[in-house]
Fold:
Amino acid sequence: MSDPAGFPLIERPVPWPHGAKCAVAMTFDIDTDSFLHLEYGKRVPDMVATTSWLRYDEIAVPRILRIYKELGLKQTFFYPAWCMETYPRLVEQILEGGHEIAHHGYLHENSNQLTLDDERAWLRRSIEVIQRMTGQRPRGYRAPVYNYSRHTTDLLAEEGILYDASLMADDVPYVMESRAGEVIELPSHWALDDWPQFAHNIELQYTMTIRSPDEAFAVYQSEFDSAWNHGGLWIGVWHPWLTARLARAEKLVAFIRTMMAKGDVWIAPMEEIARHIRRVVDDGSYKARRVEMPYYRDAIDATKVPQQKKP
Structure:
């Protein structure tokens, strides 16, 4: 596909490895049934159909690993630590395949609904589990449901987390500056998430219109084409029980092959992408945008905002 714009649309293009036109990561959030327990509590034992919908991860994760093995890829899985403890066999299979496991909360908790102390406690509890089960501390983090709080950047920097993958403020990586240090942001956005495309569950009151695999992957394809044209970063934010259903898994394989055949595409785990960004920022070959976080430490006082005069 030729570039419809005819001129660059990204002001700060990243010098990707080997002269690649763009960087790509196909990440999966392995939530399984974790988020049910905080949201629905005592109701969960009777939510059998919904639990079965989410436990399709037990079929989907091995299928994804088979796809990656067949295509020779290493990628990143964002994992609530409770799921790691509950389904250790899947963790073992991911590690056997040489893939990265990153932080995705403990029980898929909403960080922006927690106190600072509680968010820190959940974060550290998950780090301990990941370190115990994988042999190393997590290098990356994605907030469950993107629910990133005013404190999250500070906490990630305190814990030495290299990168975050929760936010949506750019087409290329940028540096988040906090009181506690720097965190590399690897941004994505809702057009690359499979939730709007496939999530439909009446009991959970998710009533998106289910798209065909062709429709969903057409959205992903258009975003990839533009990332390739302009030197962007393309990160799929997907869930095994949604995207790895049979028809969608077939389309996933075809889509990955299309990206690989395009050429000049760097497909890598998130940690590798973040380390590359850290390296080119430090050596001065990439002038990354710097964003002071959080955007607001306190709510603005709307009573002090001047009222607009009527014409």
In short: The chain has a mean pLDDT of 96. The first helix runs from residue 34 to 40.
